Amino acid sequence: MSRVERCPAxxxxxxxxxxxxxxxxxxDVLIDAYLTQAARVGTRYAAxxxxxxxxxxxxxxxxxxxxxxxxxxxxxxxxxQSLCGNDFYVITNWLVDSERLHVCS
Length: 105
Fold this sequence. Notes:
- The protein is mainly beta.
- The chain has one helix at 17-23; strands at residues 33-41, 44-50, 61-64, 68-74, 77-82, 88-91.
- The chain has one domain: HSP40/DNAj peptide-binding domain (Sandwich).
- A six-stranded mixed beta sheet has the order 3-2-1-6-5-4, covered by helices on one side.
């Protein structure tokens, strides 16, 4: 009889240092996910996601957020809240650095 080997559905991705730093910030809300390489698309963001609180999205997966608004900036990271008010995300870095200038202004 042949042997069956199980392989993970996806390969493990290292958590970026910026995400680990942002995780140490006291946000006063539960963070649903951390976003890297973020790019604004209207009132949404496209980004790579890490540490999805629900555990449904693999680290490093590209996602689009629901419609969000910037709530505050701390230590160079930006806290976003979904317009429905239920979800919070932290942007840890940007695809293009100049995008950061327009978020919390």
